[in-house]
Write a structure and sequence with these properties.
single chain; 193 residues; mainly alpha; 10 helices
Length: 193
């Protein structure tokens, strides 16, 4: 099979299998970025990366989980890049809703967004990013995406008990990392005193 035939076949399979899934990535991208334009950009970047790596996808495995992993990794990498860039002076103190086109009806932040605002994004993302891959994926799918354990188990190709264990250990590691960075205080009864 020539390279042109192979890429044509991959392109047709990508269009058939992946393109319909991209719309389902937008809500997750919006929760990550908290900005519709950035969410659209993140989904677009994810689709480009998925197309480039589509030859590595194993047919018959969970396509949705594979795309969510690409989305999460892309978000974390873009976030890292932005953190290294200097802040822009103009509008640096404005919140995203203050810069939106519709200033008369700013979006109301969710309870999740407010909780995340109390933790700096860099601390939380650093803690999530430093988790081993299997913990990071489980925590992301459960706590960010809100998937039930059974679906996560299917996506990751593991038993539900393994997912529960990875979530427990992953969340514990995130708490420990946040505590070490001075974010929180130990819960009552968790110290040896």
């Amino acid at each position: 099979m020539s390279q042109a035939e192979h890429s044509s076949e991959d392109r047709a399979r990508f269009e058939r299998d992946v393109i319909p899934q991209l719309g389902q990535l937008y809500p997750a991208a919006l929760r990550m970025t908290r900005n519709p334009t950035d969410a659209e950009d993140l989904v677009q970047e994810t689709s480009v990366k998925a197309f480039a790596a589509f030859g590595q996808f194993t047919p018959g495995t969970n396509l949705r989980a594979w795309l969510n992993r690409i989305l999460t990794t892309t978000f974390i990498n873009v976030y890292r890049k932005r953190r290294r860039e200097p802040q822009q002076a103009l509008g640096g103190d404005l919140q995203e809703w203050q810069m939106s086109a519709d200033r008369l009806t700013p979006p109301v932040p969710s309870a999740e967004a407010e909780a995340l605002d109390r933790t700096t994004d860099s601390d939380l993302l650093r803690a999530l990013r430093e988790l081993p891959g299997e913990f990071r994926t489980a925590v992301y799918l459960a706590d960010i995406e809100g998937y039930p354990y059974r679906e996560i188990a299917e996506m990751m190709g593991t038993p539900v008990g393994t997912v529960m264990s990875r979530l427990h250990r992953g969340r514990k590691k995130i708490r420990e990392q946040l505590m070490a960075s001075g974010f929180g205080t130990p819960q009552a009864g968790s110290s040896g005193a």
